[in-house]
Amino acid sequence: MAWKDRLRPASFRQAAFGVEAHSSEQGRRVVVHEYPGRDKPYVEDLGAKARGFTLRGFVVGKDYQQARDALLDAANAPGPGQLVHPYFGALRVVCTAVSVSESGEAGGMAVFDLTFVEAGESRYPAAESDPAGSLLDAADTLDGQLVEAFGKWFDLDGLPDFLSRDNLQALTERIQRLSTVGGLLDLSKQSPFLRQVRQLLDAVGELSASPAVLGSRIIGLFTDLTGSFSQPLGGIMGLARAFRGGKREVSRGLPANPTPYQRAESNRQAVQVLFEAAALNAAAATAVVRPDDITIELPQPGGNFGSGGNQQPSRIAPKAAATPLFESLDEAVALRRLLLAWLDELAPQLPDSAFSASQDLRAAIVQALPDTENELPRLVDYTPQRPLPVVVLAYRLHGDARRSSEILRHNPVAHPGFMPVHPLRVLSD
User: InterPro entries of this UniProt entry (predicted)?
Assistant: First the structure.
């Protein structure tokens, strides 16, 4: 095939024209660095130049004015357009300059000088948000503040024995609640966790002399719960049952010369805040990770707990997307409301150093729940026209009789063979 046969009819934004000649400017963008005392320069390559195209074109004929105006409109239109170049084929370009000339000698003809530059694509580095990772980071930050505050807040030194015993009893009682929560863990993780709880119970009297170390050990147990529950939602509810509530007081600190009873009450409040805030942190973290989707970064051996930065174990977010925890958007929103209400109840008790971190956690919960990457179905109302077995209803609604258990979970009935004729809560597909 001859070269002329390979040429394509020229057009810009579908406005056709002929081409007499063309030229193209290409190459590299460089910066030439010429240094004093050196004979040879250094040339820094910054990438390819935007390709430029110059065409000398024309339109001719007794109705050439229509073709001329169409080409001028195309050249003056904003944004990039498609140029069909006779030699280079289809290109996405922007017309940067156009000139047109007409004369009486060459009647019925308009000549154009067209300048184009390659448009390319608008591509910028894009940062992806990680709501789950942000929530885990916020939880770890709050844990660090809690350890630091507990180290300064809890103090048995100089207290009468009966008040010290009361404070230690409050500590022991709350540590024992962790055994109850530990029963909700995956079977493979129950024994190691319960062994750690027993070890802490045996050492609580000795560790009470070093509150920062004791606080870090307690936080470590709650951190171990993240991603370890066999049923994550059940684990979250178990944490709330075990640690939410109790006698709450706004944190005001101690007077200049506190009485032993005031100090003992302050210790009791320190224990209450530490355990409840740590439980809330563990519940929030559990809401964004699944079992085996998270690893725990342990402190280095010999680390100085509570005094040299955040030495308590920290949660590391999963690299891959976790299996959705929630069956419906309604469940995710309900859990978010529970966590936020719990945090609002607890916030007035927190010392100033931890309050700011708690508000960061609050914002992270709002961003992470529900997860925008996993589109969750909503619960909607559906009324059967007549009583039906739940397996038949599941097949009619979802095309899958195995989803009958899902319908029963949202609609407990006396007998699954007769689903009643009244509004039922079912998932929208």
Answer: DNA_circ_N
Residue 53 lies inside a defined structural domain of this protein: yes
- pTM of this structure: 0.64
Average pLDDT, the chain: 87
pLDDT bin (cut points 50, 70, 90) of residue 323 is low
User: Is there a single domain that holds both residue 139 and residue 90?
Assistant: no
| 321 pLDDT more than 90 | no
Give yes or no: residues 82 and 137 share one domain: no
110 & 71 share domain:
yes
> Domains in the chain: how many in total?
3
Residue 423 maps to a domain: yes
The whole-angstrom separation of Cα 317 and Cα 247 is 34
Which residue range forms the structural domain that includes residue 31? 3-118
Domain identity same for 286 and 191: yes
Mean pLDDT over 398-421 rounds to: 89
CA dist 367 and 371 (Å) reads 8
pLDDT tens digit sequence for 269-314: 999 999 999 999 999 999 988 655 555 554 543 444 334 444 566 6
- The radius of gyration of the chain from alpha carbons, rounded to an integer in Å, stands at 36
The enclosing domain of 114 has a CATH number of 2.40.30.200
Q: Per the structure block, which two tokens stand in for 74?
A: 């195309």
Name the nearest CA neighbour of 50 among 113, 94, 87, 99: 94
Please report, in angstroms and rounded to a whole number, the separation of the first and last CA atoms in the chain.
Answer: 58
- Whether residues 15 and 150 fall in one domain: no
Is 176 within a domain? yes
